[in-house]
Amino acid sequence: MPQLNLFGKGRTLRYAITFTCELGFGHEQEFCRGRWLSRGCFTGCILNFLFGDYFGRRWAIWIAMLWIMIGATLQTTTFSLPQLMVGRFITGIGTGVESSTVPLYQAELCEAQKRGRLVCSEMTFLGVGLVLSAFFDYGMVHIDNPIAWRLPIACQLIFALIVSVMVFGLPESPRYLFRKGRHEEAVKVLCDVYNADEDDEKVVKEHQGILQALRLEHVGNEYSWRKVFKKDDVRTGKRVLLASMVQFMNQMGGINLVVYYMPTVLEKSVGVSQQMAILLGSLINCMYLLGSFVPTLLADKLGRRKPTIWGSLGCGVSMMVVGILLSFNDSSMGHSTAVASVAFFFTFMLIYSMSMASVPWCYVPEILPLHARAKGTAIAISCNWICNFFIVMITPTLISRLQWKAYLIFMCLNFAFIPLLHFCYPETANLTLEEVDLIYAEPGTSARKQMKETKQGIMESKMAEAKPCVVMEEEVFKMSDMD
């Protein structure tokens, strides 16, 4: 795909990259939802797993927008249920490709000190889409006309078209180009992004870091789908599993109960009218947008581990209190406690958006090695979508049969995430993507020896700049013992 000089170099180019990623990720995630879409998203992730490395990041985003536009057109013009379902499935394929490409593309094209807030800003745009779709539903509920559902679907076409045009002005990921052996193109991209010469310190440092990571990763042989969970010198299998698990946590804490079924829950459990339930559901979705500004502004300062751990605790407590309050439904104070439970749906959404909504999307491309980043991201995001489908399918049955006890299931899941996050996930904030490789280099291997040789130039300088996290301290102490 040719790159047109639409955005120049330096800051304007970086802004264009970020805005394209935000618009591409945010609009589609919430303007079109449902079971068929989730199945399509899973299929899109599988296709990206198979072909993402072949096409590259830019082509993958453009192809995703094409699928979305075809699917949205079929849905908007439909006059039959089969056509609607096919359109939603095709849109889902595009969303699957887009959601497993955009975060890693953004992560590979920004500085380590800004990566967290830039990737998390995509969740802010997702929050905008969530709020817009929620208030679309509220506004259209009064209209007895097909325009009530055709218009929200048609809106996807506008955003997808904008993204598909902007992609032509964006560069390919330099890390992808280095991996493919296109070194001159990769260096040029770094120069354009930073508006600097080839001998600039920032360009040289990033160039050398990427090449060092490739040398580390090639010790464990070239990545292939057959080796996805095999143990190698940079622990690729473990990292793919961790990336998949953090996306599992993103979905299984109860968010889809709140996003998809909030009006139904408010009608059946709390006893409010349909219109009031839709309005309250829309206001609860506003909490997502409000909370998403916290990681967008502070992700690189707060890190990754603390927000997810405290967020899981807060979400678990919110679900616990909702379950307790709704358990009084059959008593004389049932109505009062049911009304009080609404407040904790608000706290759940606010806490979730500040933590588990954003950080997993940032964590996936960070924790994966370059040679497995596209395939590993596709696997992790496919886990997200299959869990999304699972929750969407079982939630009505859970609420109908278990009633208030259903919320205790999500309480237990959120609490179970806390030890997993504490013991299994290292801190990756403010590390370059290549420095994360050094954390996972296996002891006693040539990759680890290279790690020892380069730690003075990379790890110790990082240790001197900021207070080390517990996991990084342990890694450095281990290296010192080996010396």
Give an account of the 3D structure.
With 483 residues, the chain is an all-alpha fold. The chain has 2 domains: 353 residues, MFS general substrate transporter like domains (Growth Hormone, Chain: A), CATH 1.20.1250; 33 residues, no CATH class. Helix 9 runs parallel beside helix 18 and helix 11 runs antiparallel to helix 12. The C terminus is likely disordered.
State the share of residues found in helices, binned by percent. Answer: over 70%
Low-confidence runs of at least 5 consecutive residues: 454-483
Q: How far is it from the N-terminal to the C-terminal residue, by CA?
A: 48 Å
What CATH architecture label of the largest domain applies? Up-down Bundle
Number of strands: 0
Over the alpha carbons, how many angstroms does the gyration radius reach? 23 Å
Give the number of domains: 2
Mean pLDDT: 84
Order of helices and strands: HHHHHHHHHHHHHHHHHHHHH
Biggest sheet, in brief?
none
- The CATH homologous superfamily of the largest domain corresponds to MFS general substrate transporter like domains
Overall CATH class of the largest domain: Mainly Alpha
Under CATH, the topology of the largest domain can be stated as Growth Hormone, Chain: A
How would you describe the shape?
globular
Which percent band covers the strand fraction? Answer: under 5%
Query: What structural class results from the helix and strand content?
Result: mainly alpha
Helices, by number, come to: 21
